[in-house]
Write a structure and sequence with these properties.
It contains four helices and twelve strands. The protein is an alpha/beta fold. Strands 5-2-6-7-1-8 form a six-stranded parallel β-sheet, with helices on both faces. A two-stranded antiparallel ribbon has the order 3-4. The structure holds adenosine-5'-diphosphate, magnesium ion and zinc ion.
Length: 189
Amino acid sequence: MTLTPKNSGWIEVICGPMFSGKTEELIRRLVRAQIAKQKVAIFKPTTDNRFEGEYIVSHNQRKIKSVQVHDPGIILDYLNKADVFGIDEAQFFDKSIVKVCKSLANSGKRVVVAGLEKDYLAKSFGSMPDLLIDAEYITKVNAICMGCGDPANFSHRISSEKKLVVVGETDKYEALCRRCYIEQRKDKR
Ligand code: ADP
Ligand code: MG
Ligand code: ZN
């Protein structure tokens, strides 16, 4: 298929806490684009080494082939190779990810970005706020609170490590609602 330049591209951001289904939703959108014969290029940062290097994998074991990059600038090398760009774990990229997403969208591409907008202390994470500002479409997904079953908007770190980036799974994090999160954090400040 030849690529026809479109008048305008756009940015879609999928955000929410850990286990909320961001990667699942990202994969869903990208697979549908592939079914429609769109050329799709998918990227994830090297920080996220939880799964096999070449795949983006959701917690419910769906997966899709991706390219692992350290420098977001590399994504622009794929400009003429795809119509749709998928990026997972965007919070782990340096701030040049914003410029990259904008220039892809400015060049007529559909850019679908998933990432955590909040870290485990509920502070804004990496460049997610800037991506949210620029996005045409924002989808915020919730997980289910492990404490009470309400909608969970917070990622609570169960382990006692204090650095910002600690890659982990249910051994280190749980999704909590506002009330349960406040309850869990109150003795930790
Ligand atoms: P994210 O990318 O937002 O971390 P994923 O798309 O990888 O999320 O995984 C979502 C899946 O995680 C759900 O479909 C479910 O199978 C699983 N899961 C684990 N813990 C929870 C939770 N507390 N609430 C909802 N889903 C959860
Ligand atoms: Mg994910
Ligand atoms: Zn709760």
